[in-house]
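Notebook entry, structure prediction.
Reason for the run: the old model in the group folder had no record of what sequence produced it. Starting over properly, with the input documented here first.
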Amino acid sequence: MTATVIPTDPVPPTRQGRPERAEEARVTAPRRLTPRSVGVTVALVAVVVLLALVDITQGTADVGPRQVWQALTGTATAGDASVVVASRLPRMVAGLVVGVALGAAGAALQQISRNVLASPDTLAVNAGASAALAVAAVTGLTLPLLASSGVAFVGGLIAAAVVLALSGLGSGTVRLVLAGSALALGLASVTSSLLLLFPQQTVGLYQWGQGSISQNGFAGVVQLTPIIVVGLAVLLLASTRIDALALGDDAARSVGVDVRTTRVVTVLAAVLLSAAAVTLTGPIGFVGLCAPALVRLMRRLVPAVRRSLVLMPLAGLTGAGLVLGADVLLRVLVGAEASVQVPTGVVTSLLGAVFLVVLAFRARDHGGATPVERHPIVSRTRYVATLVVVAAVLVGVVVASVLLGDAKLLLGDVVNWIAGRSGPVVSYVLDTRVPRVVAAVTAGAALALAGTLVQGATRNPLAEPGIVGVTGGAGLGAVLFVTTVPAASGWGIAGAAFVGAVLASLIVFGLAARSGFAQNRLVLIGIGVATATTAAISLLIVLTDPFNGAKALTWLSGSTYGRSLADSAPVALALVLAVVVVVAQRRRLDLVGVDDDTPRLLGVSLSRSRLVFLALAVVLTATAVAAVGVVGFVGLVAPHAARALVGRRHARVVPVAVLLGAVLVGLADVLGRTAIAPAQLGAGLLTAVIGTPYFVWLLWRGRR
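New structure, fully documented this time:
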């Protein structure tokens, strides 16, 4: 089993458990604050103060700098003073406090894990806290703010514990981002399900879930600021021990540091900071990732930033500057009126997406993020038996999907409907249900084949269309079309999704091609693009009218509701075309999946073959997303399961994976229609709930 080590600051230990002497000296020195450190701190404080002053002057009310000054000095009119004190100042202070909390939390998590990719977002802390608060909201309980913070803390802590257990503290691998992203996607699916099932109890929860620093008075800030102060104090008091861990576990123990206690305390304090921030403003994305990274850029100018006692406060100040700067930039770009609806977290998420791409190129890549798959060669008899069993399961799922729903039917009803002898009620039910079943099955098959092609072409077992950003691009194109075109047709949505998928794939695969499609780099770039598309989709939903927003949310859940046979025609056509091409090129796909040299020795153009297979995957993904919306993890689960059943030869993997994908989405669709009937859940939400544990298991299997 292999793992890719990403060099971080502090430097990971060597094979003997200790860094080199030069690195040890670099981590532990200097121990005094230099004039440069003081100067940088003063400069950061000045920038934050300037942004805070600008932020106060921005808003929908006609209250400028003069009125703000008068309100602060007590000479303003009652109306102006009310605006400043009730809205402007609380918003600014909330941005300041949350930025400090997230920046310091991100720095602490990166120090303790020796991984520059660690943050409240990549450890799924924000997603866990948001899901916990959503669960609390649907119970109908009215919790005070501090109790809500406790709920968020528990949710964030559980999520962080799972991610850290999967990735391994100190491993320094991209596995941390993969585990966090997978868990965050599963938790987001839970939250989305609650939004759709309990619209009354979760009013406004979607916009809050994107992160907004708008406040109604100082009550929330006053209650949560002491919690943030306590978390910061704990981190600063433990800073020396955190630095000792940079020398390696054995070296830290040799100087009397309790490694496990230090890690637990640090993680608890960081999660506490993140939970308080989420409770106050919702999840402000990627501040905890970007702020420490920006501070580390100054380590040559200010060597003292290598120390946690200096890094964490500076990261906190930088985080405050990022949050306030994003708020200021948002109001400048879209205006005061429109910015009321746009959460600040959308802007910070876009910045975080750029940082992920940049970090992907700065990180060295030595191979796979998961173990090399070793599947035994199976006999032809076993392959045929597996194919027959999976096909039989698919037939069973299709029959169950046709018969089950809010109205249960019998096989005789279906036979009469086919013969044209059914009554009006049965005809209506089957006329609406059969197209949904066809859409689910064809989309699942297409996504499974797309995942097989992407994994084979890139030799990356984790590179399914959703993780590498293609699904997000298709979703963005389709949502843009749905929210801007009143009478959006199925073919129009398919075209928009196709354009979005093509653009996203050009960005992801174009950037990854510069490094020869290195496995970890491709995944990080894809996650960055997926993050950007998610932020853009959120922006479109909050800016459109409630009807279009609800329509887009339903579509994003992977729902087959209201689908017709015409909606499935593009994906069926793409599936047939792709299957024909793959069957003809199956041996070439096997060669591309071996290494870079073997195809060339046999006269196969590696770049041209990859282009063909990836282009087919993009077409399949775009048409599938257009047919049923965003359905995650099918392109990951189906190929993996197929290889485990019939080996690695694509002549066998492709048919089994296609059937498994159809089974997975078909089963998710029928469960979503029947489990809580008459209410319904989208197939995409259920596949994410199913796929997340499988993805987590893959990472757990390769955690060593």
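Summary: The chain has two domains: 21-360, 380-462+562-701.
The old model has been moved to the deprecated folder.
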